[in-house]
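Incident review: delayed structure delivery

Summary: a single-chain prediction request sat in the queue longer than the usual turnaround. Root cause was a stuck worker, restarted by the on-call engineer. No data loss occurred. The affected request and its eventual output are reproduced below so the record is complete for anyone auditing the incident later.

Affected input:
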Amino acid sequence: MIGATNSPAAPVRDFAARGLARSLSGDSLGARALDALRRLVVDPDARVRVTAVRVHGAYGAPAGSAIAAALRDA
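Output delivered after worker restart:
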């Protein structure tokens, strides 16, 4: 899933963001998943950004700054 976050296709990046949910990535991939989600929070595609913010929220406090920045997205 982490590799798919770099896909040129927005639907693939969107599904990759869903696949990085904390319940799926667990603690072992948590840091890498968070890094990938931080990139997706500023993705050019609005659907990808929304999905990334939703998934990011489950990571709690470490996701706070990226979510706060995303709330300023017009």
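Verification: The two ends are 27 Å apart (CA to CA).
Action items: add queue-age alerting; document worker restart procedure.
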